[in-house]
Design a protein that fits this description.
Blueprint: H1 8-19, E1 25-30, H2 33-36, E2 39-43, E3 46-49, H3 54-66, H4 72-80, H5 90-104, E4 108-109, E5 112-113, H6 114-132, H7 142-152, E6 160-163, H8 169-176, E7 181-182, E8 185-186, E9 191-193, H9 195-200, E10 208-212, E11 215-221, E12 227-229, E13 238-241, H10 250-268, E14 272-277, H11 284-296, E15 300-305, H12 314-322, E16 326-329, E17 333-336, E18 339-342, E19 358-363, E20 366-371, H13 376-398
Parallel strand pairs: 1-6, 1-14, 6-10, 7-10, 14-15, 15-16
Antiparallel strand pairs: 2-3, 4-5, 8-9, 9-12, 11-12, 11-13, 16-17, 17-18, 19-20
Helix pairs in contact: 3-6, 5-6, 7-8, 7-13, 10-11
Length: 399
């Protein structure tokens, strides 16, 4: 039976080995599922994710704007443009809204003038920033464990973090662990976007790289069309979260394109390991960059760590069955070398990663192995375990 199933222990060990060499180029792609793995007190004995997913954020924005006396009618008119029964998410709403802003000029569309559309855009961004602008609770989060892992091993190449999230959680964790990082901006009071520094990239390898693929709550575009990073914008500044991928002029697309180019460059040359966590492979634009990079460079490898059963991730499965250097690892099975199979049910309790990456459960009197690294919390523990092993090896060598 083992010939018809994948081994979760073997794959956990392979991932650990892939992350171990100090000369390997390594990057992480952290999706919306990562902050959801951190639970906070919601009152009455309940917990809630630190930051909700896209559906939760969309619901909050819709509820708030529908109850807003000034914006309710305009928001209803905007949503009505998607058609009867449509349920656009917040990113689709922003994309359509900004497309209308670009074409409405001095007229109106369904009663929506440019000032009304701009007011909606500003308010949606304010609500989004209010939700995702929360700090990490405490010092023991998976983000902190990742930051500790990044600083704990001297490497020949900088560890890179790509994320479509708008929050500042990774930055907070890196700063907490005194890990220097570069995110494409230079300066203090109003840091400016510096493409030249991104392209030359001559900073030391101990500096992490953080690339915000969909913008950030602290990115602002000024009336002069400059892109700056600061905590709060002025009245005329426009918050830069979520690129609509429309055919903007080059200057307006530049920050987003530069971030995506970093991902293309990472996957396109030499041996490279990309670990995706909290990412469902639902973003077609981002999938295209990943898949093209893997096709062009057979020595690159991507591990897609999925939370829950793989049946929830049809797009991820489709991508992995077409691309042999994309491995999808879910709770109940994996797609490895384009083969979609369940996990081997045989538990290996003595394995060093049992209880760290793999657990054994009994359901309906049947023993099953479950792969846990699709949970960002578990991935953080996995990285801490590896860092501890590295420290033990170093100590034994010194002895």
């Amino acid at each position: 039976m083992s010939g018809f199933a994948h081994c979760p222990y073997r794959q956990s060990s392979l991932l650990q080995q892939a992350l171990a060499p100090n000369k390997m180029r390594i990057a992480f792609l952290l999706g919306a599922g990562c902050p959801m793995s951190i639970r906070v007190d919601a009152g009455n004995g309940n917990t809630a994710p630190l930051i909700p997913d896209i559906a939760g954020l969309t619901s909050l924005v819709a509820t708030t704007l529908t109850a807003d006396a000034e914006l309710s009618a305009d928001y209803t008119a905007l949503i009505g443009r998607f058609g009867v029964g449509a349920s656009p998410n917040i990113e689709e709403i922003l994309s359509h809204l900004r497309a209308l802003i670009d074409v409405v000029r001095d007229g109106d569309i369904n009663g929506l003038t440019k000032p009304k559309l701009q007011a909606l855009d500003k308010r949606i961004c304010e609500l989004t920033a209010g939700v995702v602008g929360v700090p990490l609770p405490g010092e023991g989060t998976p983000y902190h464990k990742l930051a500790a892992w990044m600083s704990g091993i001297a490497r020949a190449h900088a560890v890179e973090v790509f994320t479509p999230n708008y929050d500042l959680l990774m930055e907070q964790a890196l700063e907490s662990h005194k890990v220097p990082y570069f995110d494409g901006f230079v300066g203090a009071r109003e840091a400016f976007f510096d493409l030249s520094s991104m392209e030359t990239d001559i900073l030391p390898a101990r500096w992490a790289r953080v690339w915000k693929l969909h913008g950030s709550i602290n990115w602002w575009r000024t009336p002069e069309n400059d892109v700056i990073r600061k905590n709060n914008g002025d009245g005329a500044d426009r918050q830069m979260i979520y690129p609509s991928h429309l055919k903007y002029d080059q200057s307006r697309r530049l920050p987003y394109l530069a971030m995506l180019d970093r991902l293309r460059d990472f996957l396109g040359r030499g041996q490279a390991i990309l670990v995706c966590c909290g990412y469902s492979f639902a973003d077609q634009h981002l999938n295209e960059v990943i898949m093209n990079g893997l096709r062009s460079n057979p020595t690159a490898m991507c591990f897609g760590l999925l939370y829950g059963a793989r049946s929830q991730y049809s797009e991820a499965i489709l991508c992995a069955t077409r691309q042999p250097n994309l491995s999808i690892l879910a709770e109940d099975g994996a797609v490895l070398g384009t083969l979609n199979r369940n996990w081997n049910a045989t538990s290996q309790d003595s394995h060093s990663l049992h209880g760290v990456a793999v657990s054994s459960v009994t359901e309906n009197d049947i023993e099953q192995c479950k792969f846990g690294l699709g949970d960002f919390k578990k991935l953080g523990q996995f990285l801490a375990h590896q860092l501890n092993q590295s420290s033990d090896v170093g100590t034994s060598h010194e002895a």
